[in-house]
Amino acid sequence: MLEIDGISVEYRADAGPVRAVDGVSVAVAKGEFFTLLGPSGCGKTTTLRSVAGFETPIAGRIAIAGRVVYSAERRIAVPVHKRDIAMVFQSYAIWPHMSVAENVAFPLAAAGVRGQEARGRVARALELVGLGALIDRPATQLSGGQQQRVALARAIAKDASLLLLDEPLSNLDAQLREQMRGELAALRARLGATTLYVTHDQEEALSLSDRVALMRDGRVVECGTPQDLYYRPKRLFTAQFIGRAEIVPCTVARRDGRTTLLETPLGPIASACGAAGAAGAASLMIRPEHLTIVPAGSGAPNTLPGTVASAVFLGRLFEYEIDIGGRRLKLQTLSAQPHAPGARVAVHAPPERCVLIDETTERH
Amino acid sequence: MNARRWAPRQYLPTIGLTAVLAFLVLVPLGFLLVSSLRPGGMPWSPGFTLANYMAVYADPALPRMIKNTLIFVAGSVALGLLFGGTLAWLVERTDMPARRLVRALVILPMATPPLLLAIAWIMLLSPRTGFFNEVLQKALGLSGPVFDIYSMAGMIFVEAVAVVPTTFLILAPAFRNMDPALEEAAAASGAGPARILWKVFLPLMAPALISAAVFISVAGFVVFDIPGTIGMPVRIFVLSSQIYYWGNDTPSGLPLYGQISALAAVFLVVLLALGLLYQRATRRMTRFAVIGGKGYRPRPFRLGRWRIAALAFAGLYFALAVLAPLAVLLWTSLMPYLTGFSTEAMKLATLANHAAVFENRRIGTAALNTLIVAACAATAVTALAALISWVVVRSRAAGRRLVDLLAFVPISIPGIIIGVALIYVYLTLSFLPVYGTIWILVVAYATVYLSYGTRSLNAVLIQLHAELEEAGAASGAAWWRVFRRITLALALPGLVAVWIWVAAHAGRELSSALILQGRDNVVLSTLLWDFWSAGQPNRAAAVGVWLIVALGVMVGAWQMLQRRER
Ligand SMILES: Nc1ncnc2c1ncn2[C@@H]1O[C@H](COP(=O)(O)OP(=O)(O)OP(=O)(O)O)[C@@H](O)[C@H]1O
Ligand SMILES: [Mg+2]
To answer: What is the value of pTM for the model shown?
Structure first.
């Protein structure tokens, strides 16, 4: 449906060219909700704008619905208005000199759809986003959330193969953002449109997407389903950017069927997840919320004895630091059974949640 | 939209606009330079010489003229900033009474052409017949006049009064948009009002103040009306009046074109440098304005007992800039000859001068010509500036910086010099039959006011979020549809405002019109000048009153549009 093949984008700046996107490749299947996630300045917007046609890469190829819209080799660069896309902008870009209906009708008029049919499609699009009642409002008299919906309706009305969204929720306040996130999910279930979504908010990415590409410094670090990236990250950057992670250096001792035995400063640990081919020095990743506190001396595998070094009460949760052989490990549990600092406890790390990553330091 | 990267079409807009601008700006300047090196002083005269430069720069009178010019400029900057800056501060940052009214009225003086302002103040303060002088002389029992308008001080005073509205317009938005938290933070740190003013407010406003100062200096260098009416009769020459003098009133009776070009060539370098300085200062300012463009209400500075004094100050300004000049013009227009205000004189009152405005053929032609020239120049500037600004602000066409620069250059070319240069161009390119017609005036005005047009439309477009246009393209609309339905529609108030501003200024422009005056292109401003220099002040006053009325309506409409913009 959407193929991005090794595109690079440079901006001309005073100090010379800035490479904002550096060899990004992504393939989005029909009907898929695909998200570009990453820290600020990593090139997400630039990638999205290259797909739309607002930026022209210096290398690579982009195809939308089987049609090549950009190719450096074949010197093709289809202008924005001839691409089969619809887009929702971060600032919404609702035209203030038009009414709600005129805003939504604009892409239809550009496509030559007029009269009865246009009116019907405008009404349906507004109905879909729950704004049917505001059809004749001047666009200047809308709240932030309503503008957001008009922008969505305008994109839906165009009925394009590919929907592009650049941080559509970032200008809303926290409560409205959560509500709109829910509506966006419902809407996409109903429309089934192929969507390329850009955000730096991991909750948004994880809850909405079929697949996520995590970017850094203009490159894709890792690409996978939200659960892949959370449970089975292949890269230290992914482990640390998505959710929280404890990273412990380790060496691979031996393999035993599906499990790998690791030597770590915490003691020997069995891992049943992650880089199967790793040998020698590597890293062990454990998420604080996957550790549990068990009674001391239970003797089960992957149970490490230690003392509670600090305990922070967060309401629903307790966050502990546990001292295990001189090394501190963060741990989160539900607050049903508090442990006081100084208490001797044992920490259990399930082998399938002990992820072996074949990196010792973050690679670029 | 970089999508046109592969097509040479991408360069068409910049190439086209550069060609138009080069013809309007560079070609006249080139002709000027060539003429300065010709013995005959005309671009086509044979030979090559530096004699013109020798004649100009070895002239013992030159240092005096330069000194006069610098004093005139420096004086009007100081006085203009003092008046305009204080007014802007009072209106935007204090609790002065009637602030809104003052803000609405402050640009009213723009409707008074500098020529009429100068004439009015000559009527008020001339040593022999000035109204004020007569009144003061009688009241104080003096033997001589108190003021003499025919002096450097008189010129500076009138010029300063004339530049206050523009100064206000440059400074007020910067004063208004400054984040009050910056001042509040200083207050919370224990700084008193005076300390805040000196240590926080003025330093933060430095870019705006500098750009206002540079703008006033450029205006001071290029203005002719005031030095021409007040300074020339007593032989106080500045740059512009010197050029006019060499073009018209030489002892031999022949224009000294070679010398004019030689003088202009060197001064243009100085003026262009000032112009670029202004551009840099304002560029920093727009960035600042964008940051500060939020909807807060600054806490006004409490004037306390000084509130009335502040209002009196504003009142004094209006009296000097509008009421007194308008009153004396109106009075004079009703009199058969120049006479002071008295009850006996009132018996002489006649509407003959006003009747002449509507009956005299020559005045009628001049009014019609003025209308045509103003409307055409305004339309040309608006259309060209809209294209230029879009290319400069929005497109990524190669060479758009050059286009921006070329469109800006005319701000620092005096109307007198543009006039002379256009004479060279159109006498040389005689297959273009515009010399001596109203069309050469259209070309001159369009050139002179183009920089204003592009400056304002650049600002308008910068404020329009680029995503508004991108959303149009993403909706599937082609460039022209987006430009028409979105860009132009959203920028419409800004476009109309530029049109009105240019039309109003073209209606009063004197200097290039005087140089380019032929038999068939008399306009109101040149007619006024003729009446005045031919000793018909009453007729000049009558024409002036009606011109002010027409310009006042236009300035009012412009102001309303500007207000809607915000
Ligand atoms: N017009 C431009 N000129 C020069 N550099 C630019 C321009 N636009 C973006 N960049 C640079 O390109 C890089 C990628 O920018 P981009 O806008 O794609 O980031 P992003 O991932 O969308 O970040 P954010 O989450 O902050 O929106 C950044 O380093 C940015 O500074
Ligand atoms: Mg972005």
So the answer is: 0.77
**CA distance linking residue B555 with residue B500, whole number of Å:** 7
- pLDDT: which is higher, B106 or A35: A35
- Its ipTM equals 0.75
One domain, residues B175 and B237 = yes
Test mutation, A11, A81, A102, chain B, max B CBs within 10 A? A81
* Structural domain contains residue B335: no
**Best CA proximity match to B231, nearest among B118, B78, B116, B76:** B118
Q: Residue A127 contacts by C-beta under 8 Å, 6 or more apart in sequence?
A: none
- Whether residue A250 contacts residue A294, with contact meaning beta carbons closer than 8 Å, is answered with no
Q: Do B474 and A97 touch (CB under 8 A)?
A: no
Please tell me whether residues B205 and B112 are part of one structural domain. Answer: yes
Query: In terms of CA atoms, which chain B residue is nearest residue A156?
Result: B475
CB contact under 8 A, A79 and B475: no
What Å distances lie between residue B84 and B161, B163, B209, B321, B456, CA to CA?
A: 9, 8, 10, 12, 20
Task: Check residue B298 and give its pLDDT.
Answer: 56
What dotted CATH number matches A244-363? 2.40.50.140
Query: Region A73-88: what's the mean pLDDT?
Result: 90
Q: Domain range for residue B200?
A: 61-320
Average pLDDT over residues B491-515: 86
Q: Please check whether residues B257 and B362 belong to one and the same domain.
A: no
Q: Is B55 within a domain?
A: no
Classify domain A2-236 by CATH number.
3.40.50.300
Q: Are B530 and B325 in contact (CB under 8 A)?
A: no
Residues of A in contact with B478 (CB under 8 A): 79, 81, 110
* Chain segment A323-345, per-residue pLDDT in tens: 988 888 899 888 777 888 888 88
Query: Closest partner residue to B474 among A55, A76, A85, by Cβ?
Result: A85
pLDDT at B404 over 50: yes
Task: Output the domain CATH number for residue B87.
Answer: 1.10.3720.10
List chain B residues with CB under 8 Å of A64. none
Q: How many domains does chain B have?
A: 2
Proximal ligand: closest to the CA of A47: 1
Do the domains A2-236 and A244-363 sit in the same CATH topology, yes or no? no
- Chain centre to alpha carbon of residue A242: 9
Nearest-10 Cα torsion for A235, A241, A246, A250: 20
Q: Rounded distance, CA A26 to CA A361, Å?
A: 26
Give domain status of residue B359, yes or no: yes
Residues of B in contact with A106 (CB under 8 A): 472, 475, 477, 485
3-state helix, strand, coil in chain B (%, to 5): 75, 0, 25
Kindly tell me if the per-residue pLDDT of B121 is higher than 80: yes
Interface membership of B397 toward A (CB under 8 Å)? no
- Indicate the pLDDT class of residue B282, thresholds 50, 70 and 90: low
Domain ranges of chain A: 2-236, 244-363
At which of B272, B300, B320 does a domain end?
A: B320
Do both B316 and B357 map to the same domain?
no
The alpha carbon of A159 and the centre of ligand 1 are apart by a number of angstroms equal to 29
pLDDT tens digits along A170-208: 877 778 888 888 888 888 888 888 999 999 999 899 999
Tell me if A160 sits within 8 A of A180, measured CB to CB: no
What is the A228 CA–ligand 2 centroid distance (Å)?
24
